[in-house]
Amino acid sequence: MFDYDAIIVGAGSVGVPAAMAMGEKNIKTLVLDWRPSPGQGQNKHAIGGIRATHSDPAKILTSQRCLEIFSTWKERFGDDIEWLKGGYTFPVYRKEDEKALRSILPIQKQYGLNIDFVGPDKILKVIPGINPKGLIGGTVSPDDGSASPLLSINAFYRRALSLGVTFQFKEKVTSIMSEGGKVLGVTTESKQYAAPIVIDAAVHVQRTCARPWGSMFPSFRTAMKVPLPNRWSHFLQPWWLICDLLPVRKITIFTRTVTDRWYFALPLIRRSWEPICGKPPCFCPRFVHEW
Ligand SMILES: Cc1cc2nc3c(=O)[nH]c(=O)nc-3n(C[C@H](O)[C@H](O)[C@H](O)COP(=O)(O)OP(=O)(O)OC[C@H]3O[C@@H](n4cnc5c(N)ncnc54)[C@H](O)[C@@H]3O)c2cc1C
Q: What tens digit of pLDDT does each residue of 68-122 get?
């Protein structure tokens, strides 16, 4: 009576790997996306940083598994997804940021993460050219890295297809069907699909598309802007990923996150600005010094 064992709404960073994992378990899965191909939502805006250095055990464990999948993908499946073990750094200029980052080190170490809080000298070695004025230090986690979001999602998509997952593009889900508290499937603009399980992997856009069914879980629209467009960052060979914790409302071009911090990541290009544009980008005030 059901068309599929499960339906996933959204073929993005969450939906496609979920579909792949379900395909591996022989779960008959349909993925629906209103866009024409996978990864056309937020996925293609991402810079591709992958790190496990979080403070929540569930997030740490999930991210450790992610690092394992991304870092071994090429040897296991042959696609080059541009995995680069380049490391992550959170430079610190404010005492409260130092306190916050130091406070999560015990749990990070408990879960075996290779991360430390180091002084300004080490940060200057890792990020040559960073503004040393007021630099207190920062965390360095050399085992984190990055991969191309576009190459990765397409690799996962091909793998999901080979495992028998069905993808239906240009089809917008308009509601989740349910009866007596049980999910029965989804309605799209043109059809209905029956399944006892529906995974909403488009949650972050729910406010934009004003879902009629709401969400079972609270969701946050966290925003993050990156100073370099994705295509440039790959062209320029990213190395260390730097997360700068800036106080709110200092620089209006950046977007505020739910934690009231301005957040952005810059893939540090090892002294390669000069041949490309002659000078470092003017929109990264912390990183324009002494290049
Ligand atoms: C500038 C920027 C940089 C970032 N950098 C990083 C980074 O370095 N590392 C990192 O881990 N994360 C990064 N992120 C965050 C990351 O991109 C997102 O967290 C992630 O892509 C979200 O995945 P998702 O599957 O929830 O959403 P998406 O990838 O957007 O997928 C949702 C999909 O749902 C589809 N959809 C929506 N509504 C419907 C509907 N009604 N019917 C059918 N389909 C629908 C959309 O078309 C879309 O394809 C960055 C984000 C931005 C904006």
A: 999 999 999 999 999 999 888 888 888 988 999 999 999 999 999 999 999 999 9
Q: What sign does the dihedral 105-267-148-44 (CA atoms) show?
A: positive
Please tell me if the CB atom of residue 94 comes closer than 6 angstroms to any atom of ligand 1. Answer: no
pLDDT digits (tens, 9 = 90+) for 9-34: 999 999 999 999 999 999 999 999 99
81 Cβ below 6 A of ligand 1: no
Per the CB < 8 A criterion, the answer to whether 149 and 49 are in contact is: no
DSSP string, 180-230: TTEEEEEEESS-EEE-SEEEETTGGGHHHHT-SS--SS---------SS-H
Return the bridge partners of 185, or none: 177, 194
- Domain 69-146+222-287 is of which CATH architecture? 2-Layer Sandwich (3.30)
Q: Write out the CATH class of domain 6-48+150-209.
A: alpha beta
23 CB within 6 A, ligand 1: no
Does the CB atom of residue 241 touch ligand 1 within 6 A? no
Q: Among residues 101, 88, 94, which one has the least CA distance to residue 51?
A: 88
Task: Say what the pTM is.
Answer: 0.80
